[in-house]
Amino acid sequence: MSARAGLASPGALLRTAREACGLSIEEVADRLRLNEALVLAMEEDRFGLLGAPVFARGHLRNYAALVGAAEKEIVAAFDIGDVPEPTFLPALDRAPVARRRAHPAWIAAAVVVAALAAAAAWWLSRS
Questions:
Q1: What angle is formed at CA 66 by the lines to CA 65 and CA 71, rounded to 5 degrees?
Q2: Which domains, and CATH codes, for the chain?
Q3: What is the pLDDT, as a whole number, of residue 1?
Q4: Which of 27, 34, 62, 98 allows an S-S link to 23, with CB 3.0 to 4.6 Å?
């Protein structure tokens, strides 16, 4: 008999929380900066694909935090089960998502604010 009998698996808990938030696997993958296969692996309790147990716990915590699930409950459910040996995913055909770069106006505004703060500090130190 499994030690997990009667308890929901970490993957089932995460899937339920994701669906309650109205998020797709693609959205979760983008927000966690993981590929979709790893998110699906977590929901299917295929933790060997996540690497060493320390990495699997970290991914589970991050996923739980994203969907508002109880992190401790998810990790405890993971720790109850058999921890599989890490395996590797085959190369995936997913193009990297282009990230927006900082707009030059924000950089200029930050420089102006820093200069004003330095000027104010200098002026106050003279008094």
A1: 20
A2: 10-80 (1.10.260.40)
A3: 32
A4: 27
pTM: predicted TM-score of the whole model, two decimal places:
0.61
Give the length of the chain.
127
**DSSP assignment string, 18-62:** HHHHT--HHHHHHHHT--HHHHHHHHTT-GGGG-SHHHHHHHHHH
Tokens of 123: 């002026």
pLDDT value, residue 48: 84
Which residue reads 């993971």 in tokens? Answer: 78
- Rounded to whole angstroms, what are the CA distances from 86 to 32, 42, 75, 101? 20, 13, 17, 35
The residue-averaged pLDDT of 45-62 equals: 88
